[in-house]
Amino acid sequence: MIVFDLRCSSAHVFEAWFGASAAYDEQRERGLLSCPLCGDTDISKAVMAPNIGTKGNRASEAPVPATTPSAPASMPTPAAVKAALQGLAQAQAKMLSQSKWVGRGFAEEARAMHDGTVEQAPIHGQTTVAEAKALIEEGIPIAPLPMPFVPPETVN
């Protein structure tokens, strides 16, 4: 397994695991990679910090442990990971089917519910990072969707 930090065109950086470096290239060419935060499919490798050991002529108080973790004995198979992600996607789809899409008016709708001017109901929509931070600072409970989501107005 190999881990890459990936970046979308919106500058979101996220980690992804691949069976080999060639698997990343193949999935990217086939358009199978997408940003878990915004769904963008324009994905590239992000700059990663190299793993550089200490100089050999420097004395150390304690030995430096290896920074590369060893694979756990029970590493999940790709099929198990795929099944887990499908289960998460199905749970999210069920949740969204019981929630009202409010589009870019999410922040205003969430505030109105919090203030009691609108009846509380499950909603989902879009907001900027700044708006989301402001909602959290105001004590309004919100959470991002765990899986990429295509808003209804963008469906072909």
Topology summary:
Layout: E1 2-8, E2 13-18, H1 21-29, E3 43-45, H2 78-97, E4 100-103, H3 106-115, E5 123-125, H4 129-137
Q: What does the model show?
A:
Strand 4 (100-103), helix 3 (106-115) and strand 5 (123-125) form a beta-alpha-beta unit. Strands 2-1-3 form a three-stranded antiparallel β-sheet. It has a two-stranded parallel ribbon with strand order 4-5. The chain has 156 residues and is α+β, with helices and mostly antiparallel strands. The radius of gyration is 21 Å and the shape is globular. Helices cover 31% and strands 15% of the residues.
The pLDDT mean sits at 83
Largest sheet: 3 strands, antiparallel
Low-confidence stretches: none
Using only C-alpha atoms, the radius of gyration works out to 21 Å
The number of helical elements comes to 4
Total beta-strand segments: 5
Strand order of the largest sheet: 2-1-3
Give helix and strand order, one letter per element, not per position: EEHEHEHEH
Q: Strand content of the residues, in percent?
A: 5-15%
- How would you describe the shape? globular
Alpha-beta content class: alpha+beta
Summarize the amount of helix as a percent range: 25-40%
Termini separation comes to 36 Å
List keywords for this structure.
156 residues; alpha+beta; 3-stranded antiparallel beta sheet; two-stranded parallel sheet
Structure summarized in a few sentences:
The chain is of the alpha+beta class and 156 residues long. Helices cover 31% and strands 15% of the residues. The strands form 2 sheets. The protein has a 3-stranded antiparallel beta sheet.
